[in-house]
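Running this now, will post back.
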Amino acid sequence: MSGNGAQKLAESVLRKEFRRQVVADPARALAMVEGLVFSLHAESGYVTQAALESGVSWREIGRASALIDDAGILLCQAAALLLGLSAADCAAEQEIVDQALAECDGQVGDEVGELSGEREPDVWAAAVDRFWLGARPGSVGA
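Update: finished.
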């Protein structure tokens, strides 16, 4: 079987299993999405050496890794919402999008905050805290 044929077969099997789990066990379907996201992140580590050898800077590699992280979080969030499972709130999602857009605009929020001695509140951490406490947005630490 050619490489392309093997890839199509693997994708087909994965899609069928995911559809089966969506109906049978939504939590397991979400775990499949999380596993896929984790695998993407883990595999991106292998690309670093090739990127360096082709002249990609460490800054761009870091930026790419951060975007993979952000995209993975948003993908898991979307899957949880579509499966009717618990997910963090919209403020956390917006924070991730804002950070990614700021990076694309050439802004470096964390570095500027560190230099000035000021740090923005960690919206994602606060959302995770609310999630684990089972609270609604605005009821913990607000």
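The CA atoms of residues 77 and 87 lie 6 Å apart. More later if anyone needs it.
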